């Protein structure tokens, strides 16, 4: 399967972000804690160069806590201000204001020297589709400022939100990039729901996830679906299909339905806290 999804509105959204970056002091980038590298749009580094940078590991409750800490170390070493958060529960949200002040310390001190007091920090909130930007903004603001949804493409245009005297946020649509050089990146984005499921072969996608889980999180599939974790991934999907009674008319196994169950269980956290990628060189150290 070739993983690619770049609908027309994303080109328009990227142009809008390029036009507005001159108004911005800080770029707040949300990534999915389960795939912190693959969920970073490579265009953002170019867009945000010479700006203060904050990375928020969102959906940290769905990721493996050990690896959340390793990813914080990784991005901190790269010069980012980093925080793990859960926008839905509000975990980590209160710490963001302090991180913003720290990231923009030079800008705030420069304003003071010029006699400019209380000018708000203007931050652009960026991230790929379905990473939780709107939920984050609503949680941060303490009220419903933006539309949210558990599918990609809910936010269509830009929106300024004044949080307090010291901070204004520019919400932007989630954008991917035109071509995935590494199809593994595309696959991971499909795992977490950042692509339109309707363009994907869910049985193939689910089999790839099953293969990863059987290698890195042994016992998870057995515990959830009461199957033996042996043989090929497709065979395990067939066992899940039979165990969950996913049949079409005539007792024909409905692999698509079983695949959808596996993907939904992963995305909702029912399979447990799972991280799908690891900082370079660290996986070996921790095995």
Structural write-up:
This protein has 287 residues and is α/β, with parallel strands linked by helices. It contains twelve helices and eight strands. The protein has helices at 8-20, 43-47, 65-77, 96-103, 105-113, 133-141, 183-192, 202-216, 220-225, 233-243, 255-267, 282-285, and strands at residues 26-32, 52-58, 81-84, 121-126, 159-164, 167-171, 247-248, 252-253. The protein has a six-stranded mixed sheet, sandwiched between helices. Helix 2 (43-47) links the parallel strand 1 (26-32) and strand 2 (52-58). Helix 8 packs across helix 11 (255-267) and helix 10 (233-243) packs across helix 11. The longest helix is centred in the last third of the chain and has 15 residues, at 202-216.
Quick recap:
The protein has 287 residues and is α/β, with parallel strands linked by helices.
Topology (SSEs and partners):
Layout: H1 8-20, E1 26-32, H2 43-47, E2 52-58, H3 65-77, E3 81-84, H4 96-103, H5 105-113, E4 121-126, H6 133-141, E5 159-164, E6 167-171, H7 183-192, H8 202-216, H9 220-225, H10 233-243, E7 247-248, E8 252-253, H11 255-267, H12 282-285
Helix pairs in contact: 8-10, 8-11, 10-11
């Amino acid at each position: 399967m070739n993983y690619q999804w770049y609908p027309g509105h994303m080109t328009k959204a990227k142009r809008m972000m390029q036009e507005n970056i001159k108004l911005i002091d800080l770029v707040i980038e949300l990534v999915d804690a389960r795939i912190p590298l693959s969920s970073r749009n490579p265009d953002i580094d170019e867009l945000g160069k010479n700006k203060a940078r904050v990375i928020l590991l969102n959906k940290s409750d769905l990721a493996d806590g050990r690896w959340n800490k390793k990813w914080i170390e990784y991005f901190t070493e790269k010069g980012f201000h980093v925080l793990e958060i859960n926008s839905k529960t509000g975990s980590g949200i209160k710490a963001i204001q302090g991180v913003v002040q720290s990231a923009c310390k030079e800008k705030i001190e420069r304003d003071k020297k010029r006699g400019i007091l209380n000018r708000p920090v203007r931050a652009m909130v960026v991230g790929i589709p379905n990473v939780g930007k709107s939920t984050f903004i609503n949680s941060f603001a303490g009220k419903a400022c933006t539309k949210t949804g558990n599918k990609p493409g809910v936010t269509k245009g830009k929106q300024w939100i004044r949080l307090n005297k010291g901070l204004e946020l520019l919400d932007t649509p989630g954008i991917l990039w035109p071509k995935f050089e590494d199809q593994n990146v595309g696959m991971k984005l499909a795992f977490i729901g950042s692509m339109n499921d309707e363009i994907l072969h869910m049985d193939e996608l689910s089999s790839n996830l099953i293969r990863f889980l059987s290698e890195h999180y042994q016992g998870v599939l057995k515990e959830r679906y009461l199957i033996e974790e042996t043989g090929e991934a497709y065979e395990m999907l067939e066992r899940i299909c039979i165990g969950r009674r996913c049949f079409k008319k005539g007792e024909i196994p409905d692999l698509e339905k079983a695949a959808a169950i596996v993907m939904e269980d992963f995305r909702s956290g029912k399979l447990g806290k799972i991280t799908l990628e690891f900082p370079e060189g660290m996986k070996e150290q921790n095995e």
